[in-house]
Design a protein that fits this description.
The protein is 40% helix and 21% strand. The chain has 251 residues and is an alpha/beta fold.
Length: 251
């Protein structure tokens, strides 16, 4: 099984190295690593090119937003399953992809998702996202796993579609509803940490923007575009779940 891993990057010269090394030093060897750079003006591309023998494909060109960049990477991929790791973040350890592959083989599934941590600049855990066993009912209660803990059969993108770039910065939430609630292929939770998010990386920066922009109407739109009325209290439920994740990071 070949695993395609896609990293999007834009002016992340301080953090891109740890992201790359977390991928290229995996114990599992059948990895197609694709980096989509948004025409960085700093030294990101120079750092990326230091690892070019271990990277399958690199493109550097302007994009419309991060979901446009992700779509480019998915369309370039040829692996059996696809996962994301944004610049600034890192795979939890060097055996993560082996665990994911073994899990897909043993369970004959279409999608797996795991757990994650958010780490601050001091290396301290400030938030933990431990996901439950999959149930569509949980989606209506505001649950969503860490997006970069998800690994998907590549063939599903041609069936269910790519990220809707017009919904930035909530396109990953709409994608999640479409895959985990509307279509519901074979989905299973892997009881393992998959990803470490670092404050200051693309993921946490986009999250902070979302706090200001992902209004009630934007969340409702993600449901409405799939022909479903948003569950009552969904914004409140999503907020409560995030509070619980920060509490887990403290205790």
């Amino acid at each position: 099984m070949t695993v395609s891993i896609i990293t999007i990057c834009y002016n992340n010269e301080k953090d891109i190295r740890r992201t790359i090394e977390s991928v290229v030093y995996q114990t599992y060897s059948q990895i197609e690593y694709i980096i989509v750079d948004g025409k960085s003006s700093d030294n990101s591309l120079q750092i990326i090119n230091q690892y070019k023998r271990k990277i399958s494909k690199v493109i550097s060109e302007p994009d419309m937003n991060l979901y446009d960049a992700i779509n480019k990477g998915i369309k370039l991929s040829t692996g059996d399953i696809v996962g994301l790791i944004h610049a600034g973040d890192q795979l939890y350890d060097n055996q993560v992809i082996q665990k994911v592959v073994d899990f897909h083989h043993c369970n004959e599934i279409d999608i797996s998702y795991g757990d994650s941590q958010i780490i601050n600049r001091k290396g301290e855990i400030i938030r933990i996202n431990k996901s439950p066993r999959y149930s569509p009912r949980l989606v209506r209660r505001g649950w969503m796993p860490s997006h970069q803990s998800i690994y998907v059969k590549r063939s599903l993108f041609q069936v269910y579609g790519y990220y809707n770039i017009a919904l930035h910065p909530a396109a990953d939430y709409e994608w999640f509803i479409r895959y985990f609630y509307v279509n519901r292929p074979k989905i299973q939770h892997i009881d393992a940490f998959i990803i470490k998010f670092h404050t200051g990386g693309i993921s946490t920066s986009n999250y902070m923007k979302r706090l200001g922009k992902e209004s009630k109407e934007r969340i409702k739109e993600c449901w409405r575009i799939n022909g479903i009325k948003a569950p009552g209290g969904i914004v409140y439920l999503k907020f409560i779940r995030k509070i619980k994740q920060y509490i887990l990071g403290i205790i």
